[in-house]
Automatic annotation (TrEMBL), chain A:
Chief location: nucleus
Organism: Salvia splendens (Scarlet sage)
Entry protein name: Chromosome transmission fidelity protein 4
Lineage of producing organism: Eukaryota, Viridiplantae, Streptophyta, Embryophyta, Tracheophyta
Record-linked InterPro entries: WD40/YVTN_repeat-like_dom_sf, WD40_repeat_CS, WD40_repeat_dom_sf, WD40_rpt, WD40_WDHD1_1st, WDHD1/CFT4_beta-prop_2nd, WDHD1/CFT4_hel
WD repeats mapped onto the chain: 56-97, 140-181, 232-273
One Pfam assignment: WD40_WDHD1_1st
Automatic annotation (TrEMBL), chain B:
GO cellular component, one term: GINS complex
Subunit structure: Component of the GINS complex.
Cellular compartment(s): Nucleus
Keyword Nucleus applies: yes
Name of the protein described by the UniProt record: DNA replication complex GINS protein PSF2
Similarity comment: Belongs to the GINS2/PSF2 family.
Region called Disordered, residue ranges: 203-227
Length: 964, 227
């Protein structure tokens, strides 16, 4: 063998022998060098070595270790100054101090995907740092001396480390446990830091090369850590560095005898050597090509071209295809985190289509291990999809964000699964942390597992009035809970044969001792529980709904149609959601809801539960008013309404609120607000400490962007309409059951007036944007007659005479039809007994209408005034209350009402006078006396009405001005 | 309240300043249910458990003392924000915008709601630092004024002095209550003195009687302003 000399280029000036490191980036263009006697890292341009290198001087002391992430985008360096720093590569911009030690660093290494950085040195432990967020994933302790070399196995299962005493440890990455400890197999350098012990995995991950005690290289088996064979030859002193060629066919070793030997691994023979003037401390193969970069103890580096004789196979031929498998299998999840991680893999794969000829033994082993690996991957995918479905229940709109290619196949597997059962207001269990079993508007139940049993705490938000509930030690391992003001109920799934599923009820206050009770289910498992006033419900895996009384009496057992999703209780009502069929291939869950009335034993509602396509139900319950509501993982809230024969209205959409970095975790809602906890993305559920704070969000319809540009008004219009229909329905219900509904009438009237106000403003904005047809439609929707008049005034003021005329006609038509209706269906509620005199009416329309009406009215014994007379007549009973209204708008409305009152009052008075009942007359007088004007003076009421319109006009004008 | 302070010194006492600061609005998370409270200063509430609402500081502290609420630390009291302010404060001569009563608010919160403030120790030391830096600036500002003042005196030109004050007033933008309180006696007294000096100047030039009347009139009016 010939001996040549090589000229080395000085880069790091070093007086003493120092440990130098060198890297060759797989983009071919850059060589990175560092020295333990120099605080700078140099990035050289390999193609133009004469160019001045780039210096990175971020460390305060010498740099002892370098590592480049597999995709060559990130450079890590460890230093004597105890810090590990990350840089962008090839730019060299300093990114972060990813971790710190208490003693100098000796080795750093990236794993195959670049997501984990291992760093170690004179400190006791090896730190595994997550490169994405800098968190310490694990600290591996076990070495006695300082760790001088780290190597991740290319299959990302093991980490091997070597310390200065010559001990090699195999770590299992998954668990962090030691697999094998090989003591004193490598040279013991003691405290000599100028010589590093080194170990390296073959690129296919089957062999681990470690310098031996007899100036040789020993190769160990991947799994068993058995010594397989050794390479011994011409080294006269111990080996201080070794490097595998990219295809794993050759090893370059450098010894303390200042020479480099190249070995053919298969033949176990050295094929080439090179002598140097100094000891080489580090070398690296060119990633694609027949060259070796070396650096010596004095900090001089050079490139040894055509290392392997041209008669032999190139060191880059037949690069193991392992990369391929990894990138499709195990790395799937890493890719999702770091989409650019596969950057260099494709380069390497180009060569791997060629014939492939490793040792026979290796091949057979590889096949078997590859099969295992595939199985593992499949297992992993399965578990992942399971986890995914469970987690999904708590995902806000995260799926929108993560809809990248990497996660697509997982989402498909998850999508065809039926949603797992859940409890509304529960968060998933987190080890070592307290989590919510139940969170509602009343309080919360939290639990934390600790050494085999859990500690359950119940807290009420309102600490002053809620009962105090002592903490409870839970030996069952409850995973479900529900809470209301009277008590709490818990349940656990069965765990094996010994631990049966248990349901436990805990009342907060009871006159009897020992009123806690529990039920055990043999061969059955509780899936969902709910709590109402005086009853407890549990749904089991046998699809039976079991209803217990508060005292623990087994009251009903019903069979449900499908597997349970969730359940919720409110007073007497129990709502149950079940699957009725597997999800559609388009990833839509098919759910059904049923509402039971426990005390009546009836089922008032039943129907399909709508969900946004591709979403899961994440919250289900009742609003504070008792409206059934649901919230899905796409952030849409739906509320059940009896309109259109019972439908769900989408009343909130998280995507309409332009805050993509927030997720909403629903706790409850009332008629106009949604109570939720805002979680910063990617968090989808709150932590139990610190106590989360509820945020109020306005309910609103997800409206389309209208050309009117008055979205708020349109939304208000729809919300008011919805409220009105809800109130009217409850009025009907109460009337049907013969209950007093004065309060509801009041409410209806306020909603009506605010609806009219909203319509008037909409009319104004319609007029401004020339939507005359829409304005006319809106006028037809006005419920109060005086609002129609205000609308006419409004359009007159806006100089739309044709509209005014139209409005006038509409009003006349309306009055006419109202009259006919009233005459046809006389209202028994009216207390107006006499006939109406035509001169009572104050306006032209009125007079005309009533004149006409009076002819027929005389015949009929009972007559009332047109339009929504119910509310107005009642309103007349409380004019003073209305007059105390604060806002200007209500003031402007009040005179209008009193005019109506005037009319009715007059009607009353006249009728009463005719009948000669003096007492009623005084009553009316009293009512009228609250007004400054004389109720019997016709002219004054005229004035009153005109001033009303003026004031309305003024407010409208200011409104319009404000908008313009 | 006015009785506690010396009527002649035109500064507020610490207790008075705290009293004034207690009207600042702060966000609280009550843990009780209570209807809205109607005060002269406005309506607060309704209070619903776990739902944040606005309340004056005195009410917040009163509720906190009874364990009925947690106080949410105002945004400017976060470590990030305070660090920024401290840096800006050190870098520039101007005063950074902080709530007018920041010293008192933070003090009240430290006294009564220490548990509700994240990184209490850090926040406390940052606020102390900011206070020190700002007080130091005020001291320096006053020195420069007095420097200009003596210069003005030498020239017997009070107008120069007034210009000095107006410059100072510009740089004193964003001054907080506590800091204004420190400057107030000096500035008012100094102005008074300069006024006297300048009017005695005028006395020499014009006749005595009307000028004296002016000074006599001046006194009470100024006092009224101070109140």
């Amino acid at each position: 063998m010939k001996i040549r000399t090589m000229k080395l280029r000085e880069t790091h000036a070093a007086a003493d022998d120092s440990v130098c490191s060198i890297l060759w980036a797989s983009d071919l263009g850059h060589i990175v060098t560092a020295s333990s006697s120099d605080n700078a890292i140099c990035i050289h341009d390999a193609s133009a070595p004469s160019n001045a290198p780039k210096f990175l001087r971020n460390h305060r002391e010498g740099v002892t270790a370098l590592a480049l992430s597999p995709n060559s985008t990130c450079l890590a360096s460890g230093s004597l100054d105890h810090s590990v720093k990350l840089y962008k590569f090839p730019g060299g911009d300093f990114e972060t101090n990813i971790t710190r030690f208490t003693l100098p660093i000796r080795a750093v290494a990236f794993n195959k995907s670049g997501t984990i950085l291992a760093a170690a040195g004179d400190d006791e432990g090896i730190k595994l740092v997550n490169t994405i967020d800098g968190t310490i994933a694990r600290v591996l302790k076990g070495h006695k001396g300082s760790v001088t070399s780290l190597a991740f196995d290319p299959k990302s299962e093991y980490l091997t480390s070597l310390d200065s005493n010559g001990t090699v440890i195999y770590w299992e990455l998954q668990s962090g446990s030691t697999l094998h400890v090989l003591k004193a197999i490598a040279p013991n350098n003691g405290t000599d830091v100028s010589v590093m012990n080194i170990l390296a995995w073959s690129p296919d991950g089957e062999l681990l090369a470690v310098p031996g005690l007899k100036n040789n290289v020993v190769l160990y088996d991947r799994d068993t850590a058995e010594k397989l064979f050794s390479l011994s030859g011409d080294h006269l002193q111990p080996i201080c560095f070794l490097s595998w060629s990219p295809n794993g066919k050759y090893i370059a070793t450098s010894g303390l005898d200042k020479q480099i030997l190249i070995w053919d691994v298969d033949k176990k023979q050295d094929i080439e050597r090179q002598k140097f003037s100094e000891c080489i401390t580090c070398m690296v193969w060119k990633p694609e090509g027949n060259a070796l970069a070396v650096i010596d103890v004095k900090g001089k580096y050079g490139v040894w071209e055509s290392v392997v004789p041209s008669t032999m196979k190139s060191p880059t031929e037949d690069i193991p295809g392992l990369y391929f498998k990894n990138s499709n299998g195990l790395l799937l999840f890493d890719e999702e985190e770091e989409p650019c991680a596969s950057g260099n893999l494709s380069d390497l794969n180009e060569d791997s289509h060629d014939d492939f000829e490793p040792l026979r033994r290796k091949r057979s082993r590889k096949h078997s291990s590859y099969d295992d690996e595939m199985e593992d991957v499949n297992d992993e995918l399965e578990t992942v999809s399971k986890v995914e479905t469970r987690k999904k229940a708590f995902y806000g709109h995260k799926e929108n964000l993560s809809g990248r290619s990497g996660s697509r196949n997982m989402m498909v597997t998850a999508g065809t699964k039926m949603q797992e059962p859940f409890q509304p207001g529960a968060t998933p269990a987190q080890p070592g942390k307290r989590h919510f079993l139940c969170y509602n508007m009343l309080g919360s139940i939290t639990t934390m597992e600790h050494e085999g049993y859990s500690h359950i705490e119940t807290d009420f938000h309102d600490t002053s009035s809620g009962p105090r509930v002592s903490a409870m030690t839970d030996y069952f391992g409850f995973t479900m809970a529900s809470l209301n003001e009277n008590g709490s109920v818990f349940a656990n799934p069965c765990k094996g044969d010994k631990n049966m599923s248990t349901l436990m009820y805990r009342p907060f206050s009871s006159w009897a001792n020992n009123s806690e009770w529990s039920m055990r289910f043999e061969g059955e498992e509780v899936r969902a529980i709910a709590l109402g006033s005086g009853w407890v419900a549990a749904i089991t895996n046998l699809n039976s709904l079991r209803i217990f009384t508060e005292g623990g009496l087994q009251r009903y057992i019903l069979s449900l149609d499908g597997p349970a999703v969730t359940a919720a209780g409110y007073k007497d009502e129990l709502a149950v959601v079940t699957h009725i069929s597997p999800p559609l291939p388009t990833n839509e869950q098919i759910l059904e809801f049923r509402v039971f009335n426990i005390s009546h034993g009836s089922q008032p509602l039943r129907g399909l539960l709508p969900l946004t396509p591709g979403s899961n139900l994440t919250w289900f319950g009742f609003s504070e008013e008792g409206q059934l509501s649901s919230f899905d993982s796409k952030g849409i809230l739906r509320v059940f309404t009896s309109q259109f024969g019972g439908t769900w209205l989408p009343l909130f959409s998280a995507s309409k609120i332009k805050k993509s970095e927030e997720n909403y975790w629903v706790a409850g809602l009332n008629a106009s607000k949604l109570f939720c906890i805002v979680c910063k993305s990617p968090e989808t559920f709150p932590q139990s400490t610190p106590k989360p704070v509820l945020t109020l969000l306005d309910l609103s319809f997800p409206l389309a962007a209208s050309d009117l540009g008055a979205d708020n008004l349109e939304n208000e219009f729809m919300m008011n309409n919805m409220h009105l229909s809800r109130i009217q329905r409850s009025i009907e219900e109460r009337e049907a059951s013969g209950l007093d509904c004065t309060l509801l009438d009041d409410e209806a009237f306020t909603v009506e007036t605010s609806l009219d106000r909203c319509i008037l403003r909409l009319i104004a904005s319609c007029c401004n944007s020339d939507k005359h047809v829409r304005a006319t439609e809106l006028v037809k929707l006005l419920s109060l007659e005086k609002s129609s008049r205000a609308a006419i005034k409004l359009v007159t003021a806006l100089k739309q005479p044709n509209l005014a005329e139209r409005f006038n006609n509409i009003l006349e038509e309306k009055l006419l039809s109202d009259k006919k209706e009233n005459i046809a269906l006389p209202d028994s509620k009216s207390n107006c007994n006499g006939s109406v005199k035509p001169e009572v009416a104050s306006t032209k329309f009125f007079t005309a209408e009533i004149n006409r009406a009076a002819e027929t009215a005389v015949a009929s014994p009972v007559h009332i005034f047109p339009s929504t007379s119910n509310t107005r007549a009642r309103n007349a009973e409380e004019p003073t209350k209305d007059k105390n209204g604060k806002s200007e708008e209500s003031k402007t409305m009040t005179p209008g009402r009193t005019i109506d009152l005037k009319a009715t009052g007059k009607g009353n008075a006249n009728g009463v006078h005719n009948a000669g009942e003096a007492t009623k007359a005084t009553k009316v007088d009293q009512l009228s006396s609250s007004r400054p004007s004389n109720p019997f003076a016709k002219s004054s009421s005229h004035q009153g009405s005109s001033s009303l319109f003026d004031s309305l006009k003024k407010t409208k004008k200011t409104d319009i001005k404000g908008k313009v | 309240m006015a009785g506690t302070s010396d009527p002649h010194a035109s500064a507020f006492s610490a207790a008075e300043l705290e009293f004034l600061a207690e009207d600042e609005i702060i966000e609280i998370v009550p843990n009780l249910r209570m209807d809205a409270l109607n005060f002269i200063s406005g309506d607060f509430g309704p209070f619903r458990p776990q739902i944040p609402t606005q309340a004056p500081l005195w009410l917040a502290v009163a509720l906190k003392k009874r364990g009925k609420c947690t106080i949410r630390t105002p945004e400017w009291m976060s470590v990030d924000k305070l660090t920024q302010v401290l840096e800006a404060e050190r870098d520039s001569d101007k005063f950074q915008p902080l709530p007018f009563h920041y010293v008192q608010i933070s003090r009240l919160l430290f006294d009564h709601a220490q548990g509700d403030i994240p990184d209490t120790y850090m926040v406390r030391s940052l606020i102390e630092d900011i206070k020190d830096v700002r007080f130091h600036k005020i001291g320096k500002g006053l020195e420069s004024i007095s420097g200009e003042g003596t210069f003005a005196l030498k020239l017997l030109m009070p107008s120069v002095m007034l210009i000095g004050f107006s410059i100072a007033a510009n740089s004193l933008k964003n001054l907080s209550a506590m800091e204004a309180n420190i400057v107030r006696p000096f500035v008012t007294r100094a102005l008074e003195t300069f006024y006297k000096l300048s009017s005695s100047d005028m006395i020499q030039e014009t006749d005595h009687a009307p000028n004296r009347q002016q000074t006599a009139n001046r006194g009470p009016r100024r006092q009224l302003k101070d109140r």
